[in-house]
Amino acid sequence: MSLTAIGHAPSDDQQVLDAAAGWLADGNPVVLAVVVSTWGSAPRGVGSYMAVREDGLFAGSVSGGCIEAAVVEAAQDLCRPIQVMDFAIDDDTARRAGLPCGGNVVVALIRPDSVLLARLAQRTAQRQPAALVIDLASGQQTLVDPVGNHGHLALSPEVMADIGQRLASGQSGCPSEGLFARIHEPATVLVVVGAVHVTQSLVAMAELVGFKVVVVDPRRSFATPERFPGATLISRQPEEALPELILDSRTAIVTLAHVAALDDATLIRGLDSDAFYVGALGSRRTHAKRLQRLAGLGVGAEALARIHAPVGLDIGAANPAEIAVSVLAQIIAARRGKPSQRTS
């Protein structure tokens, strides 16, 4: 099975782009707003999107709510290929928007290219990074991926090299004066083994934050569409299912089965992959026994140390939904490079 076939709830960014593409397909003029720089308090980071339809309907956001109205108004009046808006947010306005202090937000308004949006969606589906590059003077756009430049905006070798580095790091920004590169990374994939009660809550929450979710459980009565609407379901043993998935550095794997055979098979495969997170449900006593079994099967100490177990941050979780919150928080912390191991 290829991950390109995996169903998932789109990320916030993809939802905005999907809305823009849909409106364009229906013949509605659309303006795409993107944050190109920030200073001070900014609830939405560089690269945040907001799509505005001609009638004022919009998707996404570029701030905490204090400049969206101005962006909608400007978008409805936009009569040129691009407009760059520089918003200085004073402390009083910032506090009303829930920010500790003021700052500065620069937003570019462009007429999105439907062909480039379609190509970008294709790259995302293929789990390839891509950059939407915007000329901040002319409004011209192009799409750059590891293969090359796929538009009509000419870019120098130096700029292409900078964008290549940004594709690797995931950092949007300005590769040169007057250009902005919005980096789109492949979605994070969450593979969960064990279609149990905690998994139901975890899948729903993970989809909300834009993860692609795969649920693996050989018990067909467990892994059903009724219990996991929207997730990709695989009713096979993990040792059969996992080798067919792409377990790369944007993949998290967690076993919630609490069945030794399923847990061990999952961990062996996960620890042999580039997954950024590998976790397992169970008490410290259960995990100690698990470590003994895995060591006996030849898994080294360095690999075993990668396992997050007992799984989840220690928040005093007392029910399946709270356990799911703790697990997802730990996965997000690991993805963002924050401390994610339990300390107690």
TrEMBL record:
Domain XdhC Rossmann: 190-331
All residue ranges annotated as the XdhC- CoxI domain in the record: 23-78
InterPro entries xrefs: MoCofactor_Util/Proc, XdhC_CoxI, XdhC_Rossmann_dom
PANTHER family in alphabetical order: ALDEHYDE OXIDOREDUCTASE MOLYBDENUM COFACTOR ASSEMBLY PROTEIN, MOLYBDENUM COFACTOR INSERTION CHAPERONE PAOD
Protein name, entry field: XdhC/CoxI family protein
Organism: Magnetospirillum moscoviense
